[in-house]
């Protein structure tokens, strides 16, 4: 049933659109589609598919708009998929000390797919909306999502009580940084893949995003949490899906990234925010020793 459903869905879509096929529908676990101008790929990335649901993405061939429709009934604490749009640029991987700006814009919505479902809470929906990036001091390793030492996330929304790795409301004075008036808070910890994750969490759900996010990366080396010789290899935007008892549709529009090489424009040390506390400074060290001694 699980395998049959996406096939039927895909066939129905093709038939309905046969007069003007402007959307591409992808339902496979690791399907990829290149954007018309090759600047982006759209990815289904159902890496945590446990057989308890399904997901398809619909991509508009001419724009950067895409929809992901999904549900997963089991394992609500685990990520099932990360449908995303990914930057493809000759500038990547780029050394952090050579990243002058990384402007990202997008708008999005997340709703139950069926208009008869009241809201996301009704179907116990759990998901986030994130910019997901990967860094490593080795540029080849950096061009991967599983091999790099560091993952840096920007959480612009969360549903169903989802929080970043290392989040605790009892952390006193976690580091913060303001991007055009929105104060992001930094949490960190290791993921199940042995990577160290830094997550910047927005104070409320941000549904329209248009920022140079490079200060959130420069903050990390300017506060000696990572080395400035790390390369940024992967930049993606999408939703990590955890759970929903019936379909959810994530709809993203107007995605655009502009990346440029050169002197970093912003000195994050001078731009406000508390100094990192001792726990955050020591965690990466503890992590380093754990993994080199084992
Ligand atoms: C969109 O892409 C699909 C698959 O690559 C193709 O079949 C379809 O003709 C394309 N539509 C347009 C309008 O380019
Ligand atoms: C739910 O979404 C999946 C994946 O997009 C699709 O295959 C299925 O037909 C949808 N179910 C309903 C009831 O619309
Ligand atoms: C996404 O869903 C919206 C609302 O149903 C629709 O208007 C839009 O055409 C869809 N976009 C794609 C790329 O499927
Ligand atoms: C990075 O990997 C992607 C495939 O995931 C590939 O298309 C691209 O050419 C690679 N870039 C570099 C610089 O190796
Ligand atoms: C985002 O929206 C959901 C659903 O309304 C809500 O439960 C959640 O608390 C919001 N997140 C934040 C950080 O405000
Ligand atoms: C920054 O905030 C100001 C005031 O809210 C707004 O007018 C401006 O568009 C914002 N800049 C960006 C890049 O979003
Ligand atoms: C990137 O964003 C910065 C800060 O908002 C702005 O000054 C710059 O013009 C933007 N660059 C591009 C190419 O959009
Ligand atoms: C994307 O951003 C670049 C650089 O800021 C800009 O030149 C281009 O017009 C933008 N594209 C769209 C579709 O907004
Ligand atoms: C590619 O197309 C997208 C969507 O129209 C646009 O945002 C982006 O600026 C384009 N990039 C280039 C290099 O033309
Ligand atoms: C910065 O990146 C540009 C573009 O890839 C490259 O030409 C330049 O050599 C780099 N500069 C340094 C100092 O690495």
From TrEMBL:
Gene Ontology biological process: polysaccharide catabolic process
Gene3D superfamilies the record matches: 2.60.120.180
Leader peptide range in chain numbering: 1-16
Gene Ontology MF: a single term: carbohydrate binding
Domain of life the protein comes from: Eukaryota
Residues annotated as transmembrane: 274-293
Keywords noted in UniProt: Carbohydrate metabolism, Glycosidase, Hydrolase, Lectin, Membrane, Polysaccharide degradation, Signal, Transmembrane, Transmembrane helix
Family named by the database record: Belongs to the glycosyl hydrolase 12 (cellulase H) family.
Protein name in UniProt: Concanavalin A-like lectin/glucanase
Organism expressing this protein natively: Mollisia scopiformis
């Amino acid at each position: 049933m699980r395998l049959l459903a996406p096939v039927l869905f895909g066939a129905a879509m093709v038939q309905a659109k046969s007069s003007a096929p402007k959307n591409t529908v992808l339902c496979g676990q690791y399907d990829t589609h290149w954007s018309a101008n090759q600047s982006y790929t759209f990815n289904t990335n159902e890496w945590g598919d446990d057989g308890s649901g399904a997901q398809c993405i619909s991509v508009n061939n001419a724009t950067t708009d895409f929809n992901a429709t999904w549900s997963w009934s089991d394992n609500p604490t685990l990520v099932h998929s990360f449908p995303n749009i990914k930057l493809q640029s000759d500038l990547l991987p780029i050394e952090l000390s050579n990243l002058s700006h990384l402007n990202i814009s997008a708008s999005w919505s997340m709703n139950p797919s069926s208009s008869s479902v009241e809201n996301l809470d009704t179907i116990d929906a759990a998901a986030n909306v994130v910019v997901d990036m990967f860094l490593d001091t080795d540029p080849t390793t950096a061009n991967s999502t599983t091999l790099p030492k560091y993952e840096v996330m920007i959480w612009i929304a969360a549903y169903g009580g989802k929080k970043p790795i290392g989040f605790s409301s009892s952390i006193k004075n976690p580091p913060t940084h303001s991007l055009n008036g929105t104060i992001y808070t930094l949490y960190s910890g290791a993921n199940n893949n042995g990577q160290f994750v830094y997550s910047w969490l927005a104070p409320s759900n941000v549904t329209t995003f248009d920022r140079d996010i490079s200060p959130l990366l420069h903050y990390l080396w300017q506060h000696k949490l990572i080395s400035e010789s790390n390369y940024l290899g992967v930049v993606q935007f999408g939703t990590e899906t955890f759970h929903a008892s019936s379909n959810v549709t994530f709809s993203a529009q107007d995605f655009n990234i502009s990346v440029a090489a050169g002197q970093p424009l912003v000195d994050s040390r001078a731009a406000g925010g508390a100094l990192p506390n001792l726990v955050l400074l020591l965690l990466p060290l503890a992590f380093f020793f754990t993994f080199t001694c084992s």
